[in-house]
C-alpha cells in the first residue's frame, strides 16, 4: 500500500465517492513525492521492449548501446554497479561532518577527501550532490567512489532530511534549500562547484544557480547536472498537467487533512512502513534489483527522527516554489540534463519533462540524454548509465 492508499483510509468515504474514478486514480499517483502511475511490474517488460542507453555485460560492467539514439559517445567499458564501487553505508555515515548553518541548524555533510579513495593526479572541480525528497547522503553511495576518482565530492543532507536538523514547526520552502546550498558553497567548499541534484534537489540547484552572484564577485556554481528535475516542492506546481488539474480540489482537501496533527501522524506512520516504502520505491525505479533492504532503510531511518513528521507535512502542503521553466533561461553556465524515461513522478510526457526535453534546442549551454528503462532516481536506479554520460561531460568543462 502506498502513501496515497493511506490517505484514502482517512479521507471520509462520502468525499471519496464524490470524486470520479479517474480522479481517484490520478490521486493515487500525485499526492506526495512518491506518486507513481500504477504499473503491473511483472508484465511491464513483456509489453514494452526497451532499447537501453546502456546495457550490462556478464561481469556487471556497462557498455554504451550503439543502437540507442541517445548515445553519442563511443562504446566504452567503465566501472558501474559492481560491489567494489559502492561505498559502505556504515563508513559513509561515520565519515560525515556537521556544519552549523545560520548559527542554529546542524547540517550533515560528507566530503570524499576524508576517505582514502583512489584519485587521479588531475582533479576536476569539486562536486556537490543534493538528494531528493525523502532521501539523504547515502542515496549517493553508488556514485561517490566513481566520481571521487577525478573530483572532490561533497554531499549534503538538506534541512529536514537525513541526519540534518529537523526543527519542529519549521516552514520548508525551495528558497530555503537553495540558500542553504549557496551558503554551503560560500562557507565550506569555497571554490567554484558543479551542482548535481535529483528531483527537488535538482530544483534547489537550479534556483541556486540562477540566483545573483555574491557581492565578492566569486563564481560559486561552475556547472549544473539535473537528474529528473522536479517542477516544484510538491505537485501543486504542475498545474499545466491535466492529471493535476483533474484532482486539484482533492489535493487541497489533502492539505487540509494533513494539517490535522492526528490524521497527519496516522498517514505518516503508514507511509514509512517497510512494505509500503518498498512498494513505493519499486514503482519509481526502473531497475527493480536496486530496490533492496539497504535502500528501504536509507529512506526509513531518518523518518523516525523528531521533526520528520513536521517536515513531511510542511513540504507536501507548502508552496511549490519557483518554476524551473522561468529559471532556466537565466542560466548560461554548462548544464547536463539526464532523464529516466520511466519516471512516474515527473514523466517525460508531462509539462516539466516536455520542457526539459526541448531545452537543448532553446539553449546552447544545455545537453540532454534520455536514459531508457530508468526511473525517477537515475543515479541509484542505474548508476552506470548516469556515469556513462556524466563523466565525459565533467571532463569537458573548462578549467576555472
UniProtKB/TrEMBL annotation:
A Pfam family of this chain: Abhydrolase_1
SUPFAM superfamilies from the UniProt entry: alpha/beta-Hydrolases (SSF53474)
Highest rank taxon of the organism: Eukaryota
Alphabetized GO MF terms: chlorophyllase activity
Name of the molecule in the record: AB hydrolase-1 domain-containing protein
UniProt xrefs under InterPro entries: AB_hydrolase_1, AB_hydrolase_fold
All copies of domain AB hydrolase-1, residue ranges: 125-383
GO biological process: chlorophyll metabolic process
Gene3D superfamilies: alpha/beta hydrolase
TM segment ranges: none
Coiled coil regions, renumbered to chain: none
Any one Gene Ontology cellular component term annotated for this protein: chloroplast
